[in-house]
Write the structure tokens for this entry.
Amino acid sequence: MATKVTSAVMREGLSVLGVAIRAEWAVFTAAVLSSAVYGGMTVASAWALGWAAENAVLPAFAQGRAAAGALWTGVLLILGTALLKAIGIAGRRIWAGTMQYNMQARSRREVTRQYLRLPLAWHHRHPTGQLLSNASSDAEAAWAPLAPLPMAVGVIVMLLVAAVAMVVTDPVLALVGFLIFPAIAVLNLVYQRRLSPLATRAQQLRAEVSEIAHESFDGALVVKTLGREEEETERFRRRAHELRDANIAVGRVRGLFDPLLEALPTLGVLVVLAVGAHRLAGGSISSGELVQVAYLFTLLAFPIRALGWVLAELPRSVVGWRRVRQVLEATGSMEYGQARLQGDGAAALEVKELSYAYGEDPERLVLREVGFEVPAGRTVALVGPTGSGKSTLVQTLVRLVDPLAGQVRLDGVDLREIAYGGIAESVALVPQQTFLFDDTVRGNVTLGLPVDDQEVWAALRLAQADGFVSRLPQGLDTRVGERGATLSGGQRQRLALARAVVRRPRLLILDDATSSVDPQVEARILQGLRGESATVVLVAYRMATIALADEVIYLEHGRVVDRGTHEQLLARCQGYRNLVTAYEREEAERAAVEAGEGVSA
Amino acid sequence: MSQVVEGTRISRNAEGSALGTVRRGLALTPEFRKGLLGTLALAVAATAGKIIVPIAVQQTIDTGLQSATPDLAYISRAVGLCAVAVLVTMLAGYAMNVRLYRATESSLATLRVRGFRHVHDLSVLTQNTERRGALVSRVTGDVDQISTFMQWGGLMIIVACGQVLVATVLMLVYSWQLTLLVWGCFLPLVIALPRFQRWLSSAYTTVRERTGDMLAAVSESVVGAAVIRAYGSERRTGERIDAAIEANRRAQIRAQKIVATVFPLTEVVAAVAISGIVLLGVHLGLGGHITAGRLVAFLFLITLFVSPLQIATEVLNEAQNAVAGWRRVLGVLDTPPDVADPGQDGVELPRGPISVAFEDVTFAYPGGEPVLKEVTVTVPPRTRVAVVGETGSGKTTFAKLLTRLMDPVSGRVTVDGVDLRRVCFSSLRERIVMVPQDGFLFDGTLADNIRYGKPGATDEEITLALTELGLADWLEGLPDGLETKVGQRGESLSAGERQLVALARAYLADPDLLLLDEATSAVDPATEVRLARALEGVTRGRTAITIAHRLSTAENADEVLVFDAGRLVQRGPHAELVRQDGVYADLHASWVSAART
């Protein structure tokens, strides 16, 4: 999706630059001043060279004797301007880089702050990949033009000084410059406008090629077991060839314009020589001045392209900044009350006429007027078929999302009235999908909670995780996640469980949190949990898990269909019976069939 | 820089000298070598354009301006000739660029596709999750690095060397003394370049590492959104992210400072050289050893030294990256597929009931303990077998050997009496299909994913397959039916639903042996039972092997294979095994207690 290079985009791009300049004005000023020194000294160095030629070199050849004073002055001028120019370049590059990286870091901080601040419902509405690229490549693209920006400003200074210098030297030669340099600038602009969409397309295809490789390698087991390697290669080949063609298209434009942009100033110098010779013959200029102007043309030829670089980056920058701003401007946050939860030990939970809909669209209700209460210290199982709303319900219990209507009360206090951080102090959720941080085992269990290792080990023991953790190379200090030890699904679930129990929560919520753990191990974990003084809400399929509960709440299509003890529900609730006794019934039927066969045999 | 892919037997042949790597790399990309000489010739012609200005200046000053009245006709002729030369070299530059881009892009596209295909033949892919990211970059980032180098850095090296060379030649023609002086000034810089490059390279390496850390930290705020909120650890996570962003910013600025300091050094050296030329040149001129025009031409020739040296550190850095990238790509290509397709020479198995035999099969990952030990078992055609055992007992290894995702270290696996290693892949994949536990889906619609099992299947066939599996209700419940978008890796569906799609996909492939690796573990019990029944119907007449995680599967099977610590410890029908003391009885007891406490 190449953004067309229109004047509207350019205007927006310049306003993006304005944002950065306002934010980092000190660094920007330093960079621009350095760049102005660089620009001025570039012209000055040509002037110094011309001066040396005019006053020291050419007279020496003409007169057959060197004027030592002029010679040394010339040398000092050359060295002095070069040194200042070098300092200007270094300063410009350092501060331009600093500005760019500062802005990148600033956007990344702001974006991730938003990610942490915005409610979970907002996260649900945005694909993971998009959010990650907002913080990485979009933040990078938004500020990419900052790198060449000070140089471009310096070049403008350079051109102004050069224009003055040329006019002062000789208006006719200056005219050549006034024709050649705008031509270079215009040509470069045309170049960047032609290149920009092609480069964007190549970039896009590069991402797509990478995406195919990622997906295909991730799905290798499927590809291989179904013998689809050739088809996958064909899919990859098609995109790789599109990328090849796109890159060649880029190369064609580069190949045309790069030599053209080099030839133009060279032709300019030749014109200067031809015209200059006439002016020299007419006595309007000296030969030193001719050398100076010719040299200036050589020096200006390259930097003038910096103007084009900034303009070339602007469309990409605009797209990046729009995406970053979308995150920054996203509104909606959770409002918190002032209430603090008093008391120790298990907490009482009450859910009243709670409804929830995705996207707050009343047409898409996933929970309908759900109500139940769990007295302190009791254990309740939430049971229902896939898609009945259990996980959503669980999210409202810890206020990851707010309900559309109704309320959740903890010890009689509406969750929305509890102060920020108050819920996490009392309630711990172990979600269905385990998430571990790229941190040590200890860091993953404590998440910054000030507890000693003894308590960590106690939690690990309860979660039946002490065994494998003690066998890890660095024990509690072993890093898990991205670049650390690889743990099995069951081991990861047990760490997540330890994370919850180490906080001694007053309400513990397990959302099918032991599904990857062997049944024997799960039984031991559940036995251990009985000893904790906490109210427990658990989502489960396994009978052993359900049997742990004092009461079962059976959900279907987002409604509480029935509630009672396991036995009561078995006796009176058809849907519940069908779900939890599915295995048993199957077995019984099979036994009956076998018995039948036995009889007939 | 992570070398090749560790862990499995990725070849290290590609290591060795940089030159050797480049030579081998070129050998693999014939498109690049074709016409290379022509491209080089054009590059030389294009480079020659750089000395036109100094020559023109010299001619103008020495010939045209010698007398008091300039020879305007001569100057016009000389300048006109030079202008023609400029246009010619410009065209040469255009032709060279186009040829270069076409050659490099074509050759690298070939390399990319070849690498991709080869990676799919490597068993690392199915064994080692963490290495997949590294393999992806073999066919993306590593190849891109080579491409950037060939089109910019590599070209620059040629252009820069050519530029410095022609400048030096012309200088020597004008004055050997001044040439020595110029080289005397620039040589120390040239010698110092590799050192600068090392600084820069280590600074860039740090930047890359910090960027990786930063991206990992940032991703936690997105992927871990629920956990972070549930545990109120927004601040802690925010601080970790900020620290990673800050470390990345510092590393970037540090690298920038090195580049910014090294880059303008050349300007200073050039000024010293120019001063020397002015001083020595005038001295030589007074002795009649050099003309004014030639002296001034020297001042222009110096500028040809500046740009190559300014960019040299970055070009060297790129060259290093490109060689490393090349080495990594070659490392993958040089790795022989450990599970090779016999292809044309392979045996085609006729379709029909299938029998499988393991003969004294042992398997160990490279450098590891055996995970499957001396397993011997025969599965007759049309049997339904359940494989049970605790986590790590060797069940999944058994399945992978049976589908030939890996080959045994010793012993052999046969189908219908033929060694699996002799069966050609196309025949094998048609007859034996495995449904893995993790129902991986491709980004696309439900229909696309199910059709993956049988390309060209119509929507009717797909719907029929789902109906036969007892999933018609589920399909009807989906708002967009078969056109439901499953999202990246099937994200939009629940884990259970993904398994349903994976199962339908395998079923549509219509294999003679269906291997289910805990393929319905995330499905709710009622659905699972429905599925199990449907499968019982549809696998009738086929051989079916199920890695089971619950009792009823084992009870329903004709035969149960019990694995423990890599060994096949028990086998027989459920009713028989449950009466024996042993691993199965223990497992059974724990299942029973889990299901009916």
